[in-house]
Amino acid sequence: xxxxxxxxxxxxxxxxxxxxxxxxxxxxxxxxxxxxxxxxxxxxxxxxxxxxxxxxxxxxxxxxxxxxxxxxxxxxxxxxxxxxxxxxxxxxxxxxxxxxxxxxxxxxxxxxxxxxxxxxxxxxxxxxx
Length: 129
Known about the structure:
The protein has helices at 22-30, 32-43, 48-54, 60-72, 94-112, 114-128, and strands spanning 3-5, 9-11, 46-47, 76-81, 87-92. The protein is of the alpha+beta class. It folds into two domains: 1-25, no CATH class; 31-128, Arc Repressor Mutant, subunit A, CATH 1.10.10.10. The strands form two sheets. The chain has a three-stranded antiparallel β-sheet with strand order 3-5-4. The protein has a two-stranded antiparallel sheet with strand order 1-2. A hairpin with a 5-residue loop joins β4 and β5. α1 crosses α2 (32-43) and α2 (32-43) crosses α5. It is globular and about 60 Å long. The protein starts with a strand and ends with a helix. Residues 20-118 form the HTH hxlR-type domain. It comes from Streptomyces orinoci (Streptoverticillium orinoci). This is Helix-turn-helix domain-containing protein.
């Protein structure tokens, strides 16, 4: 799939196309657990339970599925160490770090602008309620 964006440059993928594989990667990154997992791993290399505590509210099953998807997309590296008990660490790959950097910029923008978002929500609720 080739599409044209912006100044006429051709890109080989088009996330707006239903059959484009970039759509699945975007969903893995921007889904609730994917974005929070990438954000947490941007801070540090973490073990599974450390990551689960950092991403408050995620179930073991959802975190495992999220990590598998992000690992498959080349964003997260899983390193199993031979020790007793076994130890598994998760960290970002260089590609994952690049994606997480951009994602964290969005997260920081939203956190900074939350007073405006809260006010917009109140106005919306007043108008609809």
